[in-house]
Amino acid sequence: MRTFQNTVNGRPAAVARSFESKNPATGETLGLVPHATPEQVAEAVAAARAAQPPWAARPDAERQALLMQVAQAIKANSEYLAEWVTREQGKPLGGVGPDQVPGARFELWGCEVWTQVPASLELPVEVVFEDDTRRDEMHRQPFGVVAAIAPWNWPLLIAIWQIVPSLRAGNTVVLKPSEYTSIGTLEMVRIMAELLPPGVLNTVSGGGDVGAALVENSGIDKIMFTGSNATGARIAAAAARNLTPTTMELGGNDAAIVLPDADPKAIAMGLFWGAFLNMGQTCACAKRLYVPDNLHDAVVAELKALAEAMPMGDGMAAGTVIGPIQNRMQYDKVVALVEDARAGGATIVCGGEAPAGPGHFYPVTLVTDISDGSRLVDEEQFGPVLPVIRYSDLESAIASANRLDAGLGASVWSGDIDKARAVASRIRAGTVWINQHGAIHPMVPFGGVKRSGWGVEFGVDGLKSVTQPRVISIKK
């Protein structure tokens, strides 16, 4: 069985310990992943520190050109990498176009685009003040070495979100992939690193102990993390000890509010994929749906029809639309939340019963006759389950959307954009979508509020977040 390797200082880095990567659809072992030692973590950080000054000293145009070459390498290897995403993460291969299932091929297309866009951006010197006596310029400089910790739900795409803006700005990177989905990420970084100077992009794979060693290393100048609140809190505590700046994209429990004038048929498909993209394993999926009395039954019926029409199975099989939950821990959490709702008197409209056979499969599940305070509503399920909460008063729905400590995204659905905008302006979330959910764009800043994190990614603001301001003040 093949043992994959980390990339440290431009070379493969073998280790004595390894662990298995398994296919969540079949349970088969896909390969062995290296478990980096504390010494290797330190070596990777040291390599990144040594490579950073000459990398930052390169003209912007050179770094941009190299990253455009990286984008082409990702495109050239997209099918190979997409198959690794499907085998390790579970999402179907799918496609890219508007009529295609947004699966692993979509993720690799996103990797290409989210490499090209930051590579194309400029950070010109800004004149922030000038009069007859002085001129003050804002320059942007890199932090130095960025520790990037990627999750398992979009393992390659979110790694790109962390890596590429950091490199574009003149930082170097040490990436720790999720222990659940390491192989595809290690292979993507191997391909990328072949085009970059040694030490500019490095990986250290393993469990939480490897991540802890990375973020606690005093040679790290900035930490970027996407993942759970619990892990984020531990990283923030470690960062505080070294006064290391962080960008944190943590869990979400996004509310979607349907207004009384919405057309159930017109919004059904958008609501469905807003909730069940990647089997609901997306931080910014709709995870609780508030529907008015007059539309409740019609909206539920439309969603039920879609749910029951979506084929579930191994993502490598043609025609698969819904794949497995990625790991057993998450699967058990989803099952427990549904069973808690069932025991509390909720109605399981469809799904709710795991099929027999291998893999972490759980059907798309709609739950009604449920309210705020239920675990399925108050806890982020991160799986293919959606509680639908009936409301009779819009003010109460807005209050419900804002009542939790999560604030990543939200959405409002209506035939009247002005009414929807008025509601959206009252929701406390980093992004509030209207008649769509989870529609991110590489030029539009994205980040959370409250306990969903801090800092933004994407676009010019995301690029600025991996730089430090330096003011040069000139006396005339």
Can you walk me through this structure?
The chain has 476 residues and is of the alpha/beta class. It has 2 domains: 6-250 and 452-475, Aldehyde Dehydrogenase, Chain A, domain 1; 254-441, 3-Layer(aba) Sandwich (Aldehyde Dehydrogenase, Chain A, domain 2). Helices cover 39% and strands 22% of the residues. The chain is built from 15 helices and 22 strands. It has helices spanning 38-57, 60-76, 78-89, 104-120, 155-168, 182-193, 208-215, 229-242, 264-276, 296-309, 328-343, 375-378, 394-402, 417-424, 459-464; strands spanning 6-8, 11-13, 18-22, 29-34, 126-130, 134-142, 145-149, 172-176, 201-203, 222-226, 246-249, 254-258, 286-292, 347-350, 365-368, 385-391, 406-407, 409-413, 431-434, 449-450, 453-454, 467-475. The chain has a 7-stranded mixed beta sheet with strand order 14-15-16-13-12-18-19, sandwiched between helices. Helix 9 links the parallel strand 12 and strand 13 (286-292). Helix 2 (60-76) runs antiparallel to helix 4 (104-120) and helix 4 (104-120) packs parallel to helix 5 (155-168). The longest helix is centred in the N-terminal third of the chain and has 20 residues, at 38-57. It is globular, with a radius of gyration of 23 Å. The mean pLDDT is 97.
